[in-house]
Design a protein that fits this description.
The protein is of the alpha/beta class. Helices cover 38% and strands 18% of the residues. Helix 10 packs parallel to helix 11. The longest helix is centred in the middle third of the chain and has 18 residues. The chain binds iron/sulfur cluster.
């Protein structure tokens, strides 16, 4: 039987688990240190932990439940990993190099049920949620890859923006955040972590109440219900008014800036009129808002969608700016590899189907 990943436990949960199994509290800190600071890949390497404790951990947990299936490296330093899970499913994780540090984009579900019309992952419906351990392990595997280079590089930022809707796998995402933030472990600052949702308004309230200090990004992609429902089915369940109400609550509770993701698709949502509507929508929240404009990355799976022209991108950006909205255009990374979210996995799944 497959054993769960040890990385799924927060330090408190590990402490409690060891106490329940007859071990002293301090063992948890020792094990934690071996996992996240010394980054061993075998329990037997934890040489200040007694044998009984090692044995019980080995019996019940695994340190490596992910195996690397494919790795693509871009000229700009972006690395896309395709990991195989214990049940054979494949997931994507991306390492990106920025001026401010190294950021990893993690996946939270195998496939996704949100069904955004522009997304390669949305075509592969959700198979299952990832466990918190499988989400943490993505970070660990990327960190271990960096460790092998011997350049003392550390993952400094995390974006929960890979395949899946993190708020549809809420508790595992929250446990994952607790683990990676823990100052005795990876100690990745909450302000260096961003969780991106397609707009599950009910969960935005819950997330606000947790006061995790983590950044929130909302995939908006359209400024009115008619257009948003066309490109994002989720808008039927959580129309823009409900979404904006939940964001108001989040801002009130946290006083933290929200980022709005807006993919620019040629002649679909990139007209000046939509930029004006977007500015109107954000209106009185502009001091705590940032709009991230993302020129669409065409994928074979959605041949009818094209990237906006440079002129349309400039006009959209200028219109927002003139209305006093903080915004930027996201620079493309990994253009020479399967950079669009879900693209690598989707290609590999197709290969598997051909082989069957
Ligand atoms: S964009 Fe995100 S939420 Fe939408 S289908 Fe793709 S993975 Fe799911």
């Amino acid at each position: 039987m497959n054993k769960p990943s040890i990385y799924g436990l927060t330090l408190d949960q590990l402490t409690e688990w060891l106490l329940e199994h007859g071990h002293k509290k301090f063992r948890a800190s020792q094990v934690w240190d071996w996992l996240y600071r010394k980054r061993v890949t075998q329990f037997s390497e934890m040489n200040n932990v007694n044998k009984e404790c090692i044995d019980v951990l080995e019996e019940n947990f695994s340190i490596q439940t992910l195996t690397e299936h494919v790795r693509q490296e871009s000229k700009d330093g972006t690395i896309k990993f395709l990991f195989r899970l214990q049940d054979g499913n494949l997931i994507e994780t991306v390492l990106m190099r920025h001026k401010y540090g190294l950021s990893v984009c993690v996946t939270t579900q195998v496939g996704c049920n949100i069904g955004c019309s522009f997304c390669a992952s949305g075509l592969l419906t959700k198979n299952r949620d990832l466990t918190s351990g499988e989400i943490v392990e993505q970070i660990m595997n990327v960190q271990l890859h960096l460790d092998t280079k011997g350049q003392d590089e550390r993952v400094s930022h995390i974006v929960v923006m890979g395949i899946g809707e993190p708020f549809d796998n809420f508790q595992n995402t929250v446990d994952f955040l607790e683990v990676v933030k823990d100052h005795k472990g990876l100690a990745i600052g909450a302000r260096h972590i961003t969780v991106s949702t397609s707009g599950l308004a009910n969960k935005i309230y819950e997330f606000a109440d947790l006061k995790l200090q983590v950044n929130l990004a909302v995939s908006l992609h359209a400024p009115n219900n008619e257009l948003r429902t066309k490109i994002m089915k989720i808008n039927k369940a959580f129309p823009i008014e409900k979404l904006m109400d939940s964001i108001d609550y989040y801002l009130e509770k946290t006083n933290r800036r929200v980022t709005y993701e807006y993919i620019l698709i040629r002649d679909v949502n990139d007209h000046k009129a939509e930029a004006m509507q977007l500015a109107e929508l954000i209106g009185d929240k502009r001091h705590l808002s940032y709009v991230n404009l993302i020129p669409y990355n065409p994928v074979d799976e959605h041949g009818d969608y094209q990237r906006s022209t440079p002129e349309a991108i400039s006009e959209f950006f200028d219109t927002l700016k003139k209305k006093g909205i903080n915004c930027g255009v996201r620079l493309e990374q990994g253009a020479d590899i399967d950079a669009a979210c879900g693209q690598l996995r989707s290609k590999q799944e197709k290969k598997k189907e051909k082989v069957k």
